[in-house]
Amino acid sequence: MRIISDYTPSKIKKFILVLIIFTFCFSTRSQDFTINIHLRGVYESKISLLPLSGPNVLKTVLTVEGVKNGDTATLKFPEENFPGEFVLRFDYKENPASTPYPSEKRIIVNDQDLELWVHPVFCNNTDSTWFQEDERENTAFINFSRENARQKQMIGLLQNFLLGYDDPNSTFYTNGIAEYEKRRLASNQWINDQIRQYKTLFVSNMFGFQHIPAIDWKGSEADRKQSLRDNYFEGMDGYVNLYGELATTTALRDSLFTLAGKNAIEKAKNGDPLVSGWMVDYFFRGYESFNIQAGIKMLEPYLDDPDCLTTKRQEINRRLEGIKSRVKGSPAPDIVMQDSDNNPFILSSYQGGKNNILILFWSADCVHCKETTDKLYRWYQDPVA
Predict the structure, then answer these.
(1) Distance from C-alpha of 81 to C-alpha of 85, rounded to nearest angstrom
(2) Whether the Cβ atoms of residue 236 and residue 264 lie closer than 8 Å to each other
(3) CB atoms < 10 A from the CB of 84, how many?
(4) What is the DSSP letter of 334?
């Protein structure tokens, strides 16, 4: 099948959003990545892979059934999904008669094939589940998270003390502030060193979110908590919940959550465009779930920003790259869909007895599309005329 006519730029612009809804895709990439999962410790398991970003967020994209103890399951998926964070879900049986029980492990995939030895019962315990020795992204993240948690535990104790202490003018309280600041600066310096050390890894873009901001510990307990809300950014759900604590009405909730999103996205803009895109996707899903129109309106500039790699932007970029290669005479992409009788239609296997096939992508709310379909329908009814 060959493309026999060109689209003008104005037509392409009109049809871009229509093209997005179709299941076929244009892509110049061909390399697949592989993760080999070596199952151990249970009788058998179903293994599923779910992306945490992109158009299929939290939807199962790959599944391997009936993997037995000692077996290796191989998952292959295209390069266009990377870099990204995924959930590996195990629905395992400890013996043939037991009911499947779920467990989940988050993994980061970039430009390296992975080998993972996993015990589903202890899939997040590094003593029972591990990657190959030369694995980079997940190993760096695990080591960073372990040390970061150790440091944050001590800093968290000081933070709780400073938030709730009832005599902010005492020497004891002043010494607490000094100790908190010393540990905060040391932790931030360590994070900066980690970012430099692992700058070639995608996961290093996530380290910066763990920086501890300066907090104004003076004033009343309410003032201290407000300062924490204005600066806090450790863990998205916890960050949003800090704002949610202030909400006494639906209108105030919507206003506060919109503000939380604005502050978080602005900070994320300083890092990798893909990470800031994930942040916009995170809030967009939340605003849609709670019907927070002010939040959705606030996100519009970020959704339209070509440097903010949201799910929508990545899909548009992918389509545009595909369109560049679709010139007159090049093979047409295959299309699989249902016809008007709900029978499967596959473009590559279509045998219509004609040299050329015309495919029109249109939208019911597009005036120009309707005019075109009306003209084509009359021509279809009477080709000679």
Answers:
(1) 9
(2) yes
(3) 18
(4) P
- Quick: pLDDT tens for 76-130: 876 666 778 888 999 999 999 889 999 999 898 888 899 999 999 999 988 899 9
Report how far Cα 2 is from the mean position of its chain's Cα atoms.
Answer: 35
Q: How many residues does the chain have?
A: 385
Q: Which of 92, 114, 133 is the last residue of a domain?
A: 133
CA atoms within 13 A on the CB side of 169: 1
Residues 194 and 342 in one domain: no
Same domain, 290 and 144: yes
DSSP 195: H
> Pick from 137, 136, 138, 114: which is nearest to 126 by CA?
138
Structure tokens at 356: 């050329």
pTM: 0.56
- Distance between CA atoms of residues 123 and 42, nearest Å: 12
Q: Judge contact between 204 and 195, C-beta under 8 A.
A: yes
Burial-class residue 366 by CB neighbours within 10 Å (0-12, 13-18, 19+).
middle
How many domains does the chain fold into? 3
